[in-house]
Amino acid sequence: MNHTVDAPLLYLAPMAGVTNTVFRRMAKNLGADILTTEFVSAEGILHRNERTRRFLDFVPAERPLGVQLFGADPERLGEAVKAVCDWVAPDFIDLNFGCPVNKVVAKNGGSSLLRDCPLLAKVARAVVSAAGSTPVTAKIRIGWSACQINALETSRILAAEGISRLAVHGRTKEQGYSGLADWQVIDEVARSIDIPVIGNGDIDSAEVALRRLKETAVSGLMIGRAAMAHPWIFREIKTALAPTGAPAGVPLRDKWAFICEHVRREIAWWNGAEEPAVKSLRARLMSYTRGLPGGARLRERLQKTVSLAEVEDIAAQHLETCAAGEEILCTAAAGR
Ligand SMILES: Cc1cc2nc3c(=O)[nH]c(=O)nc-3n(C[C@H](O)[C@H](O)[C@H](O)COP(=O)(O)O)c2cc1C
Predict the structure, then answer these.
(1) pLDDT digit string, tens, across residues 212-240
(2) Is 147 a catalytic residue?
(3) Which of the ends of the chain has fewer CB neighbours closer than 10 A, N or C?
(4) How far apart are the two ends of the chain, measured CA to CA in Å?
């Protein structure tokens, strides 16, 4: 396939607790083309829940941006979509048919709909109709379990109901996040329907990204965990796609500057409530240190941090320790 560097190709995967407006903007600066909110409950929207409302926060610079919704009742979802379009006018609505979490599946939401094709069709139909001129996209897993892989069927249904683009995570619901994503099924889906298919699962370096683009018929790539730990992956992929480009890493000093800026912006988003903001970021800060020299010691310290000053201190000490060595370049591949 012929991919140009400028094509909207790279999607930041929606990730609950990770891809809020602060992180999305930072990922976009590093080359993510299309952003989606983390998943939002249709019921939360309809109950005008304040926490849910926060999930819809975004700024114009994030466009094109999609709001991802989950639910199981076609009518309620339709009402929620109308409310969301009214409130924030997203560029698209994304339907979550992939979430494996028990709390969601128990209410028939997320991946549960993959084993109920008639209901899947009804939900898609209701949402496409309620969204009017706003495009509706969807994200699926390849099936419920290894013996119920039905992505060819669910994707055909969704395309027929007017879904305009489909992201396929190459795992089953039962796999959760274990095992490997099945890119053969993703490729089969991409070849079998005539809407764009975005491949998702285990893209953790520019090299893997390029291989997937070369070997499959996907129109784009969606990246989750690797972007969480190393958001420069988007830039690395774009550089690798450019005619002259060998992917360059990010200097350690710049990585720490980014981490501290992330903390600063998160505190601002929490209206200055520093301690809860930093605590909410701890797991993220720890994942940023994957692949860094002395990573285990860094994680031990970051696990307890409550302030920006502490993070800045940890950064300064780490840079000082590492200054003895040659300039360190961090890449997505190094953080695997
Ligand atoms: C912490 C976390 C939260 C996630 N939340 C969502 C979500 O809200 N909506 C969704 O469709 N997928 C969610 N996912 C799944 C990711 O979007 C993605 O499909 C999955 O991580 C596989 O891609 P990867 O191998 O690039 O990480 C989440 C994944 C993680 C790790």
Answers:
(1) 999 999 999 999 999 999 999 999 999 99
(2) no
(3) N
(4) 27
